[in-house]
Write a structure and sequence with these properties.
Layout lengths: L5 H11 L3 H17 L14 H9 L13
Helix pairs in contact: 1-2
């Protein structure tokens, strides 16, 4: 879940065809629900700025790809 990451929110907006403001509102609504179920989203070192970045990553050989958790 992007926290304080405007670029990530812009990317989510592009992917889902919604505004950044809507993404922000949805995050604010969903986060307490996840926390109530004791579910924490682990940050990642992967950085995606555009839908193409995601497509390239998904097309990459997953057996050799490694994304480490943030702070690793």
């Amino acid at each position: 879940m992007p926290l304080r990451k405007l670029a990530a929110q812009e990317l989510l907006g592009q992917l889902f065809g919604i505004t950044t403001m809507t993404v922000s509102r949805v995050i604010r609504e969903i986060r307490p629900l996840l926390e109530a179920q004791d579910h924490r989203v682990t940050p990642s070192t992967a950085r995606f700025r555009t839908p193409t970045d995601i497509a390239v990553y998904l097309d990459y050989d997953a057996t050799t790809a490694e994304i480490k958790p943030a702070g690793y």
